[in-house]
Amino acid sequence: MTPIGTGDKNSPVPPHQSSTQTIPAHGEVPQHIAIIMDGNGRWAKRQHLPRIAGHRRGVEAVRSAVTACIERGIGYLTLFAFSSENWRRPAEEVALLMQLFTSALTNEVEKLHRNGVRLRVVGGTQRFAPKLRSLIEEAEQHTAANTRLTLTVAANYGGRWDILQAMSRFMKDHPAAKEVREEDLAPYLAMSYAPEPDLFIRTGGEQRISNFLLWQLAYSELYFTDTLWPDFDAAALDAAIVSYRGRERRFGRTSDQVEQAKRAEVA
Ligand code: FPP
């Protein structure tokens, strides 16, 4: 049995700080950016193309976001590729998205590896076809030792699913537990290997979290842009980072306390 707070073999102890337990280290450049890539369908419609053409252009935007993050020294990029609710889309679009994930994994993993990218996929992947599942497993294994950027793709992911799967696995390991503390559950969450996102971006004009990283976004800075995902380039990423830099990250403290802490750091 795994002792409380130390996680299990699939969920190593998080080396990162919790935003509700302590003030996490944070600097000018976000360490972790999480993105809801919205607007592929509308982009395609504007070009009089089928929706899948928008998703294909979305893959190109993923490539450019990965490069931009590497160039800017951002350690973690997390992308919401398919939510647990996206199964509600027309079957044809779901099938085409699955094909797109399969071909992206087949064609891109070696390039990611050469660029020092570790790929992780979080979500209920058991619902995917065996071929896609084995491609995911191979890609994760192949890139496991890379340290430049951790690219997490959330697929068949939902924030509520994540909290519930963590709770279920925790209870299995600790059937006699009478209460659960945050630090007990954190190692069981799907992204226990990553710090909490500093910056959350949603493209495509909607202003909602849509069941993304509900636990992990507790103190993330939120940034919404009308830019459609296929048009989201390095300059658009920089605009988000500039907005992030202008935020005062108080983590529950007063403005005066934040200033005092800054002065203490400099002294
Ligand atoms: C939302 O746009 C986008 C998706 C549900 C799919 C995202 C997938 C990709 C960008 C391609 C594959 C990604 C990887 C990581 C290989 P939407 O269809 O909801 O757009 P709309 O709101 O304009 O209709």
Q: Strand-and-helix sequence, N→C?
A: EHHEHEHEHHEEHH
Overall strand count? 6
Counting helices, strands and paired strands, the structural category is alpha/beta
* Model regions low in confidence, pLDDT < 50 over at least 5 residues: 1-14
> Bound compounds, please?
farnesyl diphosphate
In short:
The protein contains eight helices and six strands, in the order E-H-H-E-H-E-H-E-H-H-E-E-H-H. By secondary structure, it is an alpha/beta fold.
Ordered list of secondary-structure elements with their pairings:
Layout: E1 32-36, H1 40-46, H2 51-71, E2 76-83, H3 91-114, E3 117-122, H4 130-143, E4 149-157, H5 159-173, H6 182-185, E5 199-202, E6 221-224, H7 234-245, H8 255-266
Parallel strand pairs: 1-2, 1-5, 2-4, 3-4, 5-6
Helix pairs in contact: 1-2, 2-3, 3-4
The structure holds farnesyl diphosphate (FPP).
Task: Please provide a written account of the structure.
It is a single chain. The protein is α/β, with parallel strands linked by helices and 267 residues long. Helix content is 41%, strand content 13%. The protein is built from eight helices and six strands, in the order βααβαβαβααββαα. It has a six-stranded parallel β-sheet with strand order 3-4-2-1-5-6, sandwiched between helices. It starts with 31 loop residues before the first strand and ends with a helix. It binds farnesyl diphosphate (FPP). Farnesyl diphosphate binds at residues 37-42, 55, 58-59, 62, 79, 81, 86, 100-101, 104, 153, 204, 229.
